[in-house]
Amino acid sequence: MLSLNRRTYKEAAFDYFNFIFMLVICFVTIYPIWYVLVNSFNEGNDAMRGGIYWWPRVFSIDSYRAVFANNGIMLAMGVTVAKTLIGTVVHVLFTAMVAYAFSRKELIGRNIYMLIGTVTLFFSGGLIPYYLLIRDLGMLDSFLVYIIPAMFSFFDLIIFLSFFREIPDALEEAAKIDGANDFKIFYQIILPVSMPVVATIALFHGVYQWNDYFTGMIYINKSELQPIQTYLYRVVAQSSSNQMMAATTGSVAKTVSSQSIKLATMVVTTLPIVLVYPFLQKYFVKGFMIGSIKG
Question: pLDDT digit string (tens) for 12-54?
Fold first, then answer.
């Protein structure tokens, strides 16, 4: 009886420690986001005094008014939305098509292709050869630089391939008996039953496209083609938020600062992808479990 009580006490203590530990982890993860949000809603000049940690001291939305009144930010946001939507759709469809071809046992040289693809997961040509390739293909200062180089990922192919191998062959055999060709089988049978993995890859690539600032920084010189993340990078790194303040007129200009505009811009650029994630989370978890259980 005494040993049972000791065991129960140890389990309770362990559960309590886990609870406290998870609270600390959640706080460390969430508080920086909360700090940015709180300061973005505080009056800019007042926020320069510091001391704002939990709630706005002087509530104001003037920083957000300045952000949405800036034509450069709205143009960059439009580029980001366009490249995220188009790039995600193209990437998912193209990678799924290649993965479906790899799943066919009759594909000639499949093992060689898999070996070549696996090598690309660990080695690359480097930035300079890649830049020269993009230049020779005529994609510098072109919207296509966001789409074509990111059409395919061998890592995503492996995830697709693991799911396609679990689809019963009877589905494809029945479709072929009805006269369906490979393209019809892929679009009307394989893709509809593969929504968990499709949503997973779409979330992966959508987050990548939304957060990608490097492509716009290296391969784009035209300001009208720069995405919002590249714009934000230059605001933070080059203090170009002074230009944003210069474009702000009226009473709003008196209540904002370069720091408050930076924080408001960060919230605006982060919020859309955060709102999308909960709707895809169930597919994301299910897709990640692909191939984890056998038998």
Answer: 776 777 778 888 888 888 888 888 888 877 777 767 767 777 8
Place of tokens 């080695």: 123
For residues 231 and 257, give the distance between their C-alpha atoms in angstroms, rounded to a whole number. Answer: 18
Q: Name residue 265's amino acid.
A: T
Whether the CB-CB separation of 285 and 197 falls below 8 Å is answered with no
Which residues, in sequence order, are bridge partners of residue 59? 42
- Cβ distance 230 to 216 under 8 Å? yes
Where would I find the H helices in the chain?
Answer: 2-40, 44-47, 62-69, 71-102, 110-122, 127-136, 154-164, 169-177, 182-185, 195-211, 214-219, 228-238, 241-246, 258-288
Distance CA 273, CA 277 (A): 6
Query: Among all chains, which residue has been given the structure tokens 């940015």?
Result: 36
Query: Is there a contact between 40 and 266 (Cβ–Cβ < 8 Å)?
Result: yes
